[in-house]
Amino acid sequence: MCGIVGAAAARNITPTLLDGLRRLEYRGYDSAGLAVVDGKGQLSLRRSVGRVASLTAIADQVDGHVGIAHTRWATHGRPAENNAHPHTSSSQVAVVHNGIIENHQELRARQIEQGFPFSSETDTEVIVHQIDWHMQQGLGLLAAVQATVSELRGAYGLGVVSKLEPDTLIAARSGSPLLIGLGEHENFIASDMSALIPVSNRYMVMEDGDIAKITSTSVEIFDLNGQPVERKVIISHLSDEETELEGYAHYMKKEIHEQTRAITETLEGRLGADSVLELPFGDNAREIFDRTKEVKIIACGTSYYAASVARYWFEEFGIKCDVEIASEYRYRKHVVNPGTLFMTISQSGETLDTMAALEMAKTMGYSNTLCICNVPESSLVRASDLTIFTHAGREIGVASTKAFTTQLVTLLMVAICLRRRRLGDGRTIDAMETEIVNELRTLPQQIENVLSLEDQIIVMSKHFGDKEHALFLGRGAHFPIAMEGALKLKEISYIHAEAYAAGELKHGPLALIDEDMPVVAVAPNDELLEKLKSNLEEVRARGGKLFVFADAESGLRSDDQVMVLNVAPVNNFIAPILYVVPLQLLAYHVALLKGTDIDKPRNLAKSVTVE
Ligand code: G6P
């Protein structure tokens, strides 16, 4: 999704802006640009469609001390140079913007009457003309931005520069994340701290309504009423190490293989000899769990599938659990039972729909809010009563892998804690908890064993290279795992993939079965195995080709219609966490065959900060 970098420094900041944009590439974008107040006091503007490398080719000669830069993920207006940010007005002011301005049409109509020429189809262009208009009425840059944002409806993270105030960078935030990075005789803005790794490890998080005036030597922040406000300085622990490919061809492959370590770190310090420990979750965790009678989980994308798996665990443990997609939850009425814990799950902690759902939930009588998140500095973390972190490390591939499995591990630990309360005093540990804890402890090794099946998965992937569709089947907690497998395949290989609860096959999708429709099934050795086997027979009888990830003791064998890949026997509770790994590898290797841009699939973004 769109990314912002800006800088005010005593040195030429173009290399820093371009480097920052490169670091934001993982978020997904389709065009890029920068505007710098150059040595002659003019605005130098460079924009291009495609990768930051294309922008670098036309911008690396630009020289100046104050500037803004942007990667754009198209919302209003197609990916094109004229729609790329920054946008300018009268060659005096330049703006980069994340978010969506809802009243752009009425502002545009007024500005056209005022004589402003429009050169883009974006909602953003009205912001820059409005600032320009206020400056023409005699306001300074800060005051002009203050006046402008008071007229905007919608979400924005803004970086603004003007040749009339060549030493100043203005930043404003409402609903779209924006940080101020602090350096020595230089200061920065960014939508994501990873853009600033080489230049700053101290930063402030702008809050909604904040407007900041930044120079190379000063940072002043004002609230919506123009009153000065202080924001806490935070130390960032992000490092370049996490962003190296370390010999892997793609981040996605690296991240799939990092799952052993990521799960180990997520479990670290949270498992006692025979139970899940609660204290490491936070001082108030015990109190919040004590109050919880049921659970509502809201998320988007892969995080939603993690929630959907967890629902089986919670309800198996006798805790009512309801799961919903954030963008749906936001726009309907709700009945909230007393003692319901509102849980959000998010890798980035910045997904706008999830964040908006949380803000709405806070007014609705939930007992508490809990967030499961991978990014400590994120908006969701700051807005929740309690956060339990997944220690996945930075995830760069747009298709989520290690974030998903660490979310599952964390959700299982939370489910165990709530189960203990349902069964008794919240302190007594029973044999089942001990059994699951022991399984969790061996999970990293079990993941390692599944990863060693990669060569067989490569062979399997060759059957998908020429296919246009694929069907994924699962039952129980493996139905959402099948959905996640289908999502991975469609995201990165562009093969249309759908998942069905295997029992639903005969209610429609069976009509699609022929030799061109590969059917992938997840078949652990659980109480649903025999039922699943019947569903697989239904496919076989119609000439379908099956690719089955099955428990070695399932009795399923390969033949000319079925390719079975055996997974070592595993405990039922842990099984979904394990079975998603071969599906991730399958998607990766099919995409590799198809030659797609695996880490940055077309049209997709890592962090979705618009509605
Ligand atoms: C985007 C990403 C997905 C992610 C989803 C939710 O669509 O491409 O990988 O699952 O957003 O993101 P979150 O950060 O809230 O988990």
From TrEMBL:
Entry's Gene Ontology molecular function annotations: carbohydrate derivative binding; glutamine-fructose-6-phosphate transaminase (isomerizing) activity
Per UniProt, residues of the SIS domain are 285-424, 460-601
- GO biological-process terms attached to the record: amino sugar biosynthetic process; carbohydrate metabolic process; fructose 6-phosphate metabolic process; protein N-linked glycosylation; UDP-N-acetylglucosamine metabolic process
Q: What is its main location?
A: cytoplasm
Pfam entry (one): SIS
The reaction(s) catalysed by this protein are: D-fructose 6-phosphate + L-glutamine = D-glucosamine 6-phosphate + L-glutamate
Query: What is the protein's quaternary organization?
Result: Homodimer.
Q: Read off the PANTHER family from this record.
A: GLUCOSAMINE--FRUCTOSE-6-PHOSPHATE AMINOTRANSFERASE, ISOMERIZING, GLUTAMINE--FRUCTOSE-6-PHOSPHATE TRANSAMINASE (ISOMERIZING)
Q: What does this protein do?
A: Catalyzes the first step in hexosamine metabolism, converting fructose-6P into glucosamine-6P using glutamine as a nitrogen source.
Q: What protein name does the entry list?
A: Glutamine--fructose-6-phosphate aminotransferase [isomerizing]
Organism encoding this protein: Arenicella xantha
Gene assigned in the entry: glmS
